[in-house]
Amino acid sequence: MSPITGTTRGGKPWTPKFVDSIDVEKCIGCGRCFKVCGFEVLELIEKPFAGEDEYGDDMGNKVMSVARPGNCIGCEACARTCTKKCHVHVTA
Fold first, then answer.
1. Most buried pick, 27, 62, 74, 87, via CB within 10 A?
2. How far apart are CA 78 and CA 75, in angstroms?
3. Using DSSP, how many helices (H) and how many strands (E) does the chain show?
4. For 27-90, which CATH class?
5. What is the reported pTM?
């Protein structure tokens, strides 16, 4: 199957790249990608870490996940706003 292609308003060829996954080791859960996506593709989830901190508390953290990949339109706005470059995109 060939990738979906189109043209921009200016006539340049464009191939959408859809978000496939997020590298949770790089993600800091800042929410920038969540805020820029208008299609509810992403969702903030708990990231469990092994072990406890020096106070005996569970070392949990929030990270982004791809909750609804079918909603992605391939604009890559999430990747452009991410300072950690943790988004993986694929062509259809």
1. 87
2. 8
3. 2, 6
4. alpha beta
5. 0.80
